[in-house]
Write a structure and sequence with these properties.
The protein is an alpha/beta fold. The protein is built from 20 helices and 18 strands. The strands form 6 sheets. It has a 5-stranded parallel β-sheet with strand order 2-1-3-6-7, sandwiched between helices. It binds adenosine-5'-triphosphate. Keywords: Activator, ATP-binding, Cytoplasm, DNA-binding, Nitrogen fixation, Nucleotide-binding, Phosphoprotein, Repressor, Transcription, Transcription regulation, Two-component regulatory system.
Length: about 475
């Protein structure tokens, strides 16, 4: 059955308007497109859409400006925000303004059509809470633009206006604590305490006393009544780090507190009401611990209301250079000499597998900012600092960068849905790559077609035909036969 509904698509990139517009029309929607905020305002009046899909960076301003006012006038309208800025800030702003969905670019066309049908099906967005306009956005701590981080930002943006329990998962050093701090400092509890407690860092027998507090005389050394972390976090957020290391008995007690909302100190009998948001984190496989009877299943369900999975740094290599520069900038702001990265250093950083994740990268950049005397950080300096056996032998292979470029190119082509059945992505890629390859190869042999064909491993006639097809002028390439 054809879908019904009117959709307004606003993007100054005509390709996106065409592709998105076509995809939605094929589903049966009525679609109009606009390329600016001015056109958007006019069409909102004359076309009266059910769903507005809008880009953020528009030629006449910020596409998010005016969204709250539009929703005030048309509360039934669902808004989907597209953005290439891809920061936590954009995700939060979009969600706060009342957007139904936020899709970072390049987006998947199926994801967009699904978002449209969800928006129409639900009558209205899932995030109907009153937008909180006063959140502090500056200096947001999380750096990264990879698709995996976009997913993290979207989830963070969605949990700021509620108190759902969060379970942050990820290897050591991926930023779990930073995510917990961000949720707290951007959310509605930000004026109250953020109290972290690391289960792995406290002797097992003291965990309950630390968490729930203790009465004077409860055990040797308990000289006075002491409030536990739960009470200290009253009204705010309790961050239970390394929750997988919590002893079973403490888990049972924690579950009871979460169920009742009351804590009783160790050695005490009176309970105190507590109101805290729980964010837990672990690098352990909790379902496996449950299987081994080392973690309570009921506690797991209680904590894992909204999971946030942080990718390992090697799974988001596109963020490595961004992060490295961020840490170098920070070092410079702290008064250390400003350092930059050479190209070969950047390649080496991207090829390394970062077992210690962002923390390892941060430590390395700080060390180099302090110790190196040069202004430029080179691959040689890194080789002295990184365990070399961990760097793939072909780290410098341009293939790594090329592979990444091709992956991004393919994602972009597929993501914005330019691949109609009659398109030939394979030929399109060759048309981008081959002329560059031919030019470089010919230049390296002073334009000798025979030698170039030999290096390329193709027949000379094939090379000549391809040069003609690509409109490459053999004379300009100084092809000497
Ligand atoms: N996306 C990021 N942007 C900027 N800094 C980051 C990011 N992720 C992590 N860091 C920095 O890396 C360091 C390690 O992060 P964090 O302590 O949050 O990791 P973790 O996952 O909690 O580690 P562990 O499991 O070992 O406790 C911190 O100094 C943090 O500021």
């Amino acid at each position: 059955m054809a879908a019904t509904g009117a959709i307004l698509v606003v993007d100054d990139d005509p390709a996106i308007c065409v592709v998105v517009g076509e995809a939605l029309r094929r589903q049966g929607y009525r679609v109009k497109t606009a390329a600016s905020i001015r056109e958007r305002s006019a069409l909102l009046e004359s076309f009266s859409p059910d769903v507005l899909i809008t880009d953020v960076m528009l030629p006449d301003g910020d596409g998010l400006d005016g969204i709250a006012e539009i929703l005030e006038r048309r509360p039934a309208l669902s808004i989907i925000i597209l953005s290439a800025q891809n920061t936590l800030n954009t995700a939060i702003r979009a969600t706060e303004k009342g957007a139904f969905e936020y899709l970072p670019k390049p987006f998947d066309l199926n994801e967009l059509t699904r978002a449209v049908s969800d928006a129409l099906g639900s009558g209205k967005g899932a995030d109907e809470e009153a937008p909180d306009a006063g959140l502090p956005h500056d200096g947001l701590p999380l750096v990264g633009r990879s698709p995996a981080m976009q997913e993290v930002y979207r989830t963070i943006a969605r949990v700021l206006s509620n108190d759902l329990s969060i379970l942050v998962l990820g290897e050591s050093g991926t930023g779990k604590e930073l995510v917990a701090e961000a949720i707290h400092s951007l959310g509605q509890r930000r004026t109250k305490p953020f109290v972290p407690i690391n289960m792995a860092a406290i002797p097992r027998e003291l965990i309950e006393a630390e968490l729930f507090g203790y009465e004077k005389g409860a055990f040797t050394g308990a000289h006075a009544r002491t409030a536990g972390k739960f009470e200290q976090a009253q009204g705010g957020t309790l961050f239970l780090d390394e929750i997988g290391d919590m002893p079973m008995e403490a888990q049972t007690r924690l579950l009871r507190v979460l169920q009742s909302g009351e804590v009783t100190t160790v050695g005490g009998s009176k309970s105190v009401k507590v109101n805290v948001r729980i964010i837990a984190a672990t690098n352990k496989d909790l379902p496996k611990l449950i299987e081994d009877n080392r973690f309570r299943q009921d506690l797991y369900y209680r904590l894992n209301v909204v999971p946030i999975a942080l990718p390992a740094l090697r799974e988001r290599r596109e963020d490595v250079i961004l992060l490295a520069r961020h840490f170098l900038d920070r070092a410079a702001q702290e008064g250390l000499p400003r350092k930059s990265l050479s190209d070969d250093a950047a390649q080496l950083l991207m090829a390394y597998h970062w077992p210690g994740n962002v923390r390892e990268l941060q430590n390395l950049m700080q060390r180099l900012a302090v110790l190196s005397r040069e202004n430029m950080i080179t691959a040689d300096m890194l080789r002295n600092s990184l365990p070399l056996e961990a760097v793939p032998a072909d780290y410098a292979a341009p293939g790594d960068l090329l592979g990444q470029a091709v992956r991004e190119w393919a994602k972009r082509q597929l993501g914005i849905g330019l691949t109609q059945p009659n398109r030939n992505l394979h030929d399109d890629l060759l048309a981008v790559v081959e002329p560059i390859l031919f030019q470089e190869t010919l230049a390296s042999v002073d334009g000798n077609q025979i030698r170039a064909a030999g290096l390329l491993g193709i027949n000379r006639n094939t090379l000549r035909k391809k040069l003609t097809d690509y409109g490459l002028d053999p004379l300009q390439l100084r092809i000497a036969e």
